[in-house]
Design brief:
heterotrimer; A alpha/beta (about 350); B mainly alpha (about 325); C mainly alpha (about 280); A: about 350 residues; alpha/beta; Rossmann fold; 2 domains; eight-stranded mixed β-sheet; three-stranded antiparallel β-sheet; 12 helices; globular; B: about 325 residues; mainly alpha; MetI-like fold; about 75% helix
């Protein structure tokens, strides 16, 4: 098997806070292992506060107290060492050149008092090793490729629309042609039409540059459109992983089944069943499998021991005793659902 | 461009309002209070020895006209504004026949110099150090400075000036503690004159700067520690943008606009501090003149200084408002 | 409540330092009620004695014991500060709550007036006021005059909170249930605003005492009432520093500085305790 673009082993990242003498630990990412192949878009899904944002912060080496990495390793193919063995300066060197980040669509990631031109200069100029005029030639060409007029360079962020700002952010993140891109809900908070454009733009740019990507969103329909493989997180753990098409077609973990079953489909009039209970408090996670309080298939075993993420014969991975022990039982298969339906959402 | 003009128009409106309300307060204070300045002046003029009642009557009439206290209250009100508009407050009683506007004209540059120097120094130094303290939260030295700044912040100007005066006037007398310039030096662009002015201004500037520097420091520190959590700073850090650039162009730069607004809002208070400091150091500005006016019962002088102070501060605030769009391109939002 | 105070004391250094300073000053103030000498009388003790066991902070040139003078003066100054703060609080609350709740034109007009009062330099106006009052100038008159000029900073703060309360669900609920505007402001919004008002009150007390000291020292108040300001005024009249009677000046200055820093630290820690944002920042730091 060819070398992975990113390989994460047993990653643990907790929020450790002390306030008025009380220690508190929130296990936002607990023992996650996964690898992203070259040229692949690896999607991560899960409800809010499942740990997916913390996971990518950790992978992007963007942690700040109170978040702390307590164990595990993160290896990129362009690095000879673990990500957390790098010093500050080396880290600054690989950022944007090799590893870049597309931020959430709802955030104001552009400095409000600086023109777009200056932002490009701050972010990309030191990494490109070009003269000033050459640099702006590259930037102009890149902007045009992303259907942005170079004239926006002299604008302030508040003079652009939300969709434009997000395109600028994508241009900013990809202008150095990085090998690895981390995208954190880049289409959230954009309206649906703009969302589609932005998604197409990301896909096109990723193909053109030939980079690998982690794409995080809670929106499964977006994953259906963009991700090659999909990992589903619940309460700080990766609970299922496999090719996106297969997960939509045949979700294995009871939680994934619920997620997929809750998607609206044209012509489907059956009422959606809400999952009972609430996501667990990660400061005091439940014993055993973290999903067991809400799981219809839970047994005593699930209450006591935590299931490992096991690889099935199909190559897919799932962390569930019920599924791993009896791979034949697959209720709730959605035969009617094909990937094509999602292609045209 | 239109939004900029609209902004200017609104700020100018505020300027007019400040002058209008301030001057009305002055008029109200002079007319709703028990003391009649004319009778006050007459009684102080006649307290030594007998006076001819006819002469007193003539004096009363002259003073009424001089003070603009002739006729009905509305006529007095209009006279008041007319005199203000022409800058004519009549002659000063204590420095007769020098006019009040001449006296104020002589004092104003001293106050303006003191105020602008100390404000500029305190604002720049306080913001810069406070910005550093907000950004490098773990630095010991900056933490220590933070404690000093927090301690300085609530001290009123009079107490601060007094402490500085005691320190440098009695315990370690190295600097002149009184006056604006040495007595026997001729004014002019000579080295000795300017040097003397600078030396005399050091202690007043120091005590004034000490009062405000703490507030800028603490304000900037808390602004910066909020701004470092802003999306654009986090993102720039994520992109490996140079740390110095992040500190200056991303963090501090975005805190400057609110701090400039803070300066405009606190200018009235800083002005109070300046004239009080002048009194302590006998600095020849508006403050010293004001107290002299009160002690010698010079109605026109006190009235003139109160009115001019309001106009001067309002003008300075308006000037700061004009600078604001340079720091914040999103000016139409406010 | 007690537990909160104890936790604050233990884990918030500003609160601990501030409360110790304020308690010391309050101790001195309470002691003033047991003063062995009537505060206004002079020549009750031998003049110009340096600090000793008999006279802790020495005596002054007017034959008064400096410690007991400071105690009475601090009591009066504090009382003055509290009065100004309370009166100006009422104005600030009314203007802030009405402006924030009613909004629109009313808000714009009130806030323009508010900003105007922020900018106007008070000291020349108060000086003019003294000039026009002279002997009629009493403690109460000065307090009212200062209160009617010292409200705008806090009115703006209260307004910004009221503005955010206006859009909350419980406000809509109250309107539908038929409460009058006055009722909504008094019964629903006031409790939200009060903690912040309390913290600004401490700062306002500082501000009033500071201004009173300044006016008194220059002789622009009733100099017969013993306050920290008038005490320094009399010391200056007797050129105490030049004569080497430094304790006469140092004692009131040091006491009032303790008061200033103590109250300020309390208000800082109070703000921090109320504001969830700084609380998070502290957790992160």
């Amino acid at each position: 098997m060819e070398e992975a673009a990113l390989s994460v082993q047993n990653l643990r990242a907790y929020y450790v806070t002390g306030h008025f003498g009380m220690q508190r630990e929130v296990r936002a990412v607990d023992d996650v292992s996964l690898s992203v192949r070259k040229n692949e878009i690896y999607g991560i899904a899960g409800e809010s506060s499942c740990g997916k944002s913390t996971f990518i912060k950790t992978v992007a080496a963007a942690i700040r107290p109170p978040l702390r990495v307590l164990g595990g390793s993160i290896k990129y193919s362009f690095l000879d060492r673990d990500l957390y063995d790098l010093d500050e300066r080396k880290l600054a060197d690989i950022r944007w050149n090799h590893l870049s980040f597309i931020p959430q669509g709802s955030m104001n990631v552009l400095n409000p008092v600086r023109r777009i031109r200056e932002s490009f200069q701050d972010f990309a100029f030191p990494h490109m090793g070009l003269g000033r005029s050459e640099f702006f030639d590259v930037v102009n060409r890149h902007l045009e490729r992303l259907q942005l007029s170079p004239s926006i360079l002299s604008a302030f962020p508040h003079e652009l629309s939300g969709g434009m700002r997000q395109r600028v952010a994508i241009a900013l993140a990809t202008v150095c042609r990085p090998e690895f891109i981390i995208a954190d809900e880049p289409t959230t908070a954009l309206d649906v039409v703009v969302q589609k454009d932005v998604l197409a733009l990301i896909l096109e740019t990723q193909r053109e540059i030939g980079s690998s990507m982690i794409f995080v969103t809670h929106d499964l329909t977006v994953h259906a459109n963009i991700s090659n493989r999909l990992g589903i997180m619940y309460a700080g753990r990766l609970i299922e992983e496999g090719p996106t098409r297969e997960i939509f077609h045949d979700p294995l973990h009871p939680y994934s089944r619920h997620l997929v079953a809750s998607l609206p489909r044209i012509g489907d009039l059956t009422p959606k069943i809400a999952l009972t209970g609430a996501p667990p408090n990660l400061a005091q996670p439940p014993s055993g499998c973290r999903f067991h309080p809400r799981c219809p298939l839970a047994t005593d075993l699930c209450r006591q021991a935590s299931p490992e993420l096991t690889t099935l014969s199909s190559g897919r991975r799932v962390a569930c005793y019920a599924v791993a022990s009896a791979p034949a039982t697959r209720p709730m298969t959605n035969d009617r659902m094909t990937n094509d339906k999602f292609k045209s959402f | 461009m239109r939004s900029y003009l609209w902004y200017l128009a609104r700020r100018f409106g505020q300027f007019v309002l400040v002058v209008f309300v301030g001057i009305n307060i002055v008029f109200f204070v002079t007319h709703a209070t028990p003391i009649d300045p004319v009778e006050q002046a007459i009684s102080s003029a006649t307290q030594f020895g007998q006076s001819d009642p006819r002469a007193v009557e003539i004096m009363r009439k002259a003073l009424r006209e001089l003070y603009g206290l002739d006729g009905s209250i509305w006529q007095q009100y209009l006279t008041f504004w007319r005199r203000l508009a022409t800058g004519d407050f009549g002659p000063s009683l204590s420095a007769f026949p020098t006019s009040v506007s001449t006296l104020i004209g002589q004092a104003l540059p001293w106050t303006a110099g003191l105020l602008s120097t100390s404000t500029l120094v305190a604002w720049c130094v306080g913001n810069f150090m406070g910005g550093l303290a907000g950004y490098y939260r773990k630095n010991r030295l900056l933490k220590g400075l933070g404690i000093v700044a927090t301690g300085l912040q609530p001290i009123p100007s009079y107490i601060m000036s007094l402490v500085v005066l005691i320190l440098f006037g009695y315990l370690w007398p190295i600097l002149p503690i009184s006056g604006g310039v040495e007595m026997n030096i001729h004014p002019g662009f000579t080295f000795s004159f300017l040097g003397s002015v600078a030396a005399h201004s050091l202690l007043p500037v120091l005590s004034l700067a000490l009062i405000t520097i703490g507030a800028w420091f603490v304000g900037m520190r808390s602004l910066v520690s909020n701004i470092v959590a802003e999306d654009y700073v986090v993102y720039a850090e994520l992109a490996g943008v140079d740390r110095h650039k992040i500190l200056t162009s991303y963090v501090m730069r975005n805190a400057l606009a609110p701090q400039l607004t803070g300066l405009a809002l606190s200018l009235g208070g800083i002005f109070n501090g300046a004239i009080i400091t002048e009194v302590v150091f006998g600095y020849p500005g508006l403050g010293t003149l004001l107290v002299r006016g009160v002690n010698s019962g010079d109605y026109s002088l006190v009235l003139g200084i109160a009115s001019i102070s309001i106009i001067a501060v309002a003008t300075a605030v308006f000037a700061i408002d004009l600078l604001y769009p340079l720091l914040d391109p999103r000016v139409k939002v406010r | 409540m007690l537990k909160v105070l104890r936790d604050l004391f233990r884990h918030n250094r500003e609160f601990a330092a501030g409360s110790i300073l304020v308690l010391i000053v309050l101790g001195i103030v309470v002691a003033s009620f047991f003063s062995p000498y009537p505060p206004l009388d002079s020549y009750v003790v031998p003049p110009d004695i340096p600090p000793s066991w008999d006279h802790l902070l020495g005596t002054n040139s007017r034959g008064q014991d400096v410690f007991w003078q400071v105690a009475v003066a601090m009591r009066n100054s504090l009382l003055f500060g509290i009065s100004v703060a309370l009166i100006s609080r009422v104005i600030a609350l009314v203007i802030g709550l009405v402006s924030g709740y009613v909004g629109g034109m009313v808000d714009r007009v009130l806030m323009s007036i508010n900003d105007t009062f922020v900018v106007i330099p008070l000291f020349p106006i108060l000086t003019l006021f003294y000039f026009m009052m002279h002997d009629h100038m009493s403690w109460v008159v000065l307090a009212v005059a200062m209160a009617s000029l010292g409200w705008p900073y806090d009115a703006r703060l209260i307004r910004s909170i009221a503005l955010s309360l206006r859009n909350r669900e419980f406000t809509t609920q109250s309107i539908f249930s038929g409460m009058s505007t006055r009722q909504i402001l008094m019964e629903e919004h006031l409790p939200y605003v009060l903690p912040i008002v309390f913290s600004t009150t401490l700062n306002n007390i500082n501000w009033s005492i500071g201004l009173e000291v300044t006016l008194s020292v220059i002789g622009l108040t009733n100099i017969e009432t013993p306050t920290i300001g008038t005490m320094i005024y009399w010391a200056n009249q007797h050129t105490a520093m030049v004569a080497g009677i430094w304790w006469w000046v140092l004692a009131p200055v040091a006491t009032v500085i303790m008061m200033f820093i103590g109250l300020f630290l309390l208000s800082v820690s109070m703000n921090e305790f109320i504001d969830p944002r700084t609380r998070l920042a502290r957790m992160g730091a």
